[in-house]
Each structure stands twice: as structure tokens, then as C-alpha cells.
Predict the structure.
Amino acid sequence: MAEIVLTNTGLAAFLEASPEFRGPGSRRAADAVLGLLALRGADRATGLPEPTPALVRRLLVEDLPAFVCAAPEELAAYPAVLRALARRFDGAGRAGVEGVIGEAADDFERAMGDPGNLTWPRWYAQLLRADGTDPDDPAAVRAWLARLDGPPVPDGVRRADLMGRTAVADVLLAEALTRAYVRDAEQAPPAGPVLTDHDVAQGIGTVAAALLDRWTAAGLAEGLTGAYAHLAPGPDAFPHLVLADALLDEHLDYYGDPAEPLPPPEEAADPPDPEGDADLLAAAVDALADEGTYGSEAAHLLYTLYQRGCSAESVARRAAEFEDWPVDPALEDAPVRVPPPASPAYTTPTAGELARLLGLPGVNDTDRARLDGPAHELAAVVDRLAATALVFRRGDAFGLTPDGAAAVRYLLAVRGVAVPDAADTTAWDAPTLVAAAAGWPPAVAERVLGEWLRALEAAPGDVDEQAWAELLGAVGRVNAGTSDAAATRALLGVLDLSAAPVGALRRALADPVAGARAEAALRARGEDVDPKAVPASARALDVLDGLPGKRGPLESRRTAFDTAAGRWPGGSAALVAAMAAADPHETARVLGPLGIAPP
């Protein structure tokens, strides 16, 4: 079968005219290049597929990195084949093709070496070459496969990544084969069809496997779908990917972009079998799907626990949020104390404790009784998850165990969500860190920012003035002029400015955002500060951010604004103008409910 598929690609004529490509690696390159061009619909009126700039770029950066394995020393053969092919065609198109080959050469090499593009056949073809196995000897390839104990994976790549990429590549190749067959059947090309009826009757999957054997290693694809299928597990081996998809959906609901990073867990773990742990969580979530009001919220609970840096949450507070109680926004993501082990039975916190947890001073015993049923129901869901030993509950507190955090991190990473660890975040530059931390719960942002500053200490206790200066400056620059500017400025409130070096604070005085905060920190230490050193924009933002929040009583917000306006040069109109110039989005949001329209 491998010898008869993809006929009429002009391979024999090309090799006859180009003897330099007759070696095994070069011949494989010529076969793949001509075959893929023909499959993608290149004109074969002359007997050879004519490359075009668009086809060449697709071939180099998409098709070859999906279907072909080549040793590093063989990579140059693929652009060389394209150049030799282009020289056989006259006209302006030839210059365009040669230009694209040159432009895409680096992208081609990067794509061929990118672990994210590996499929099972491409990965094993690399390994067997590295072991000295002849990729053109099917018996040697089968013997090599027989010696493997299990599916090894490259560093930084998960089995599910290889499986997913393989599944995508299989679909792409099957689609290309089907379209080529239909295209030739609808209008017979002078050179003859690329695929015969006999080829297609064997099955598109069989044809695809035969091509992959030619382009990776002889007998490899056949072995990985046959006797050695356990070495290339497919989707059925990854039942936890359903939960991974649910967690991705949660992340997109929160942030809208998988590239928006989540905070690292406070306590890292490196469990031996994160896939097995993920399977346990997925089975528990699946079993809870139809269990009461909160059973379907199990995936959401796991995501939010990770999203808060894996700090412990309160069952009662989460139940109150599910029941639409007006929980204080400042407490929604606040960590809770984990009590020592006690009776496993759940008890709803007292009215006084609920008032503290929820930020609702008026909570009484009647309110507690109203929340008791939902809290017990949610606790039962948590306990079902805790049976995996990857979630815990102690009293009203619950959270992810270190192994549970690692399992959720694995599930998120499998679906492309950015999940840095502490080593990653401490290596970021200040703007990257600030951009990420602006979307994290305040307590988590405080922890990670503090870890970043400590990591840059020249010696224990030796605070890095430059690091502080960069961080304070980044808070003002990142997201400036956008609707996210206020959330970014809020990071100034989680930084312990009393620990900042005096030099860094003095450098920040002139900052249009952080200047007023730096001035206050310096004065708190008894330092002299020239008031003229602080820009009006920084003072206006300090007033704006100090007004009662969006759920605060409008009367208190009005009183606070009037008080500040009374001290502002030029009064309320001048203050509003300064606020609007510094942050029009937050000014409209905060002052709009007071009937104050920015100029």
C-alpha cells in the first residue's frame, strides 16, 4: 500500500532530473513536498505540482511540521526541493516562491523543532533515529517498538498534548486526502489522479497511515495503530479531558483568554501521577453532575479554588454567593483560616461568624437558619470531592490539597491555560507581573508580588531599590488609559510601601499614578517631601480610588467626594476634570451614580 498511494506526483521525473535528492533523507523530502503540494491542489499540468507562494508557506509552517520527521541534518533538503521545483517553472511566480522559501525558512526550522508540534509518529520517529534505528527498515522499526516499556514523552510535553496534536494531524491529513480525491474525480487532471479508486477503497485512514510511514519511519504508523497501540494512547485513555474542557470554559468566562495567567499555588507539589489524579477528580465531578443544586457546580468550585491561588475558601460564604446574598466584594476572595481537624460533620458558622465572613453586620440567627440548608448541601458536594484526597474540608473551610492543586494545574495546562508556578512568576519582568496580578484576588497578588520582590533581594533583608522602582512604575503604565487601569492601580493597595526603599519612593514621587501613594509612605516615615513634586493626576487618582466602592452607600460616596472637592484647588469642577483626565473610565463609573458627569 505504501508504494502505490499518491501516484502521479511527478516524483520519478523529479528524482531523475535531480540526482542530488536520491539519498534516503532527500528522497523522503522530495516525496513529502511533491505529495503534499499535489494533495493541496497544486497545478500538475506539466506533470509536476507547481508551487505557489501560498502553498509553499502552508507546506513549510503547517503541513511538514505535522506529518514529517526529519533529522536536523535533513531539514535543509525540504526548502532545497522547493527551490529545485520552482526552477522548473518560468514566470513571475518563481521569484515569489523563492522569496517565500527564504522568508519562511526560519519559521520552518522552528516549527519542525517545536515540541508543541509533535505527534506520536513524529516523536517516535525522532527517538528511533536517536537510538540508531534505520527509519527505512520496517523490521528494525517494529523491533525497536517491541523493546519499549511504555510511552515516553519529551520534557515539558504531556501525553495528552501528543494525543491531541496527533488527533488534529490525523484529521488534517484525512481531509486533505478526501478533498484531493474528490477534486480529481470531479475534473480529471491531465497528469492523472493523485489517488486511485483502489487506494480510497482501502480506507482514507489506511492511506494516511501509509503516507505517515513514508514520511516518518517505515512501519511506524502501522505499528502504533496496531500491535503497539498502547504506545500511542488515543482520546479514550484521557477521560479527564472532559473536566479539562469544563475548566477551560470557566477560565474563558473569567478572563476571556487562555493566555491570561492564573496565580501560582502557595504550596507546590510534584505528584507522581497527575493524570491519575485528574481522572479521580473527573470521575467525582461526573458523578456529581446531577446531584442536587450544587452538584453541577463541582468544576466551578475546583476552578475558583485554583484561581484564588489555592487558598482555603468558606463553604458558607460560597453558598451565600450561590444564593445571591450581597457578600462584601472586599471579602469575596479573602482567604479563610483552616481549623485543626475535628468532627467531620458540617456545622454552619454562627451568625456572628457569618457576619464577619460575608461582611454583612446585620446577619442574625434567622439569616443563619436560611443559609443552613444550602451550606449543608454544598458541604456534601465538597465532601464527595474530598473523597479523592485531592480536596479537603475542615469545618467550614475547604480547598485543594497540594496534589489536588497539581491535578487542576495539569488539567488547565492540557487545554492551554497559562498556569505559571512560583519560579515562573519570580522570573517575570515588572510589567508582565503587574499585568497578570491585576486580575488576581488581592491576597494572592500581595503574596506573589512579595515573592517577586524577595527573589530580587541582593542578600537576605537587602531590599532591591531598582526592583521596587520598576514595580511602582509598572503599576502606572500597565493598562493605562483602559477600563482595567483602576484594577491595576489597586495593586498599590496590596504593596507594603512601608518596606519600600526611600530611594524608590522618591523616584516614584513624579509618577502620574503612584506619586501620591509614594508621598504618603515617605511622610509616614517622617521624610520631607516637596508637595510640588507630585503630579496633580496622581493626587486626583488617589482621591478617586479612595472613594467608597461600587457597593458602598451612595451617601457616603457623595460625602467623601464633597470633602475632597472642598480641599481641591478650584473645587469640584477642577477635581472632576483632573480625575477624568487621569482615568475617564473609573471616573464615569464612580461619579456617574452621583449624577456627576465628567467634562
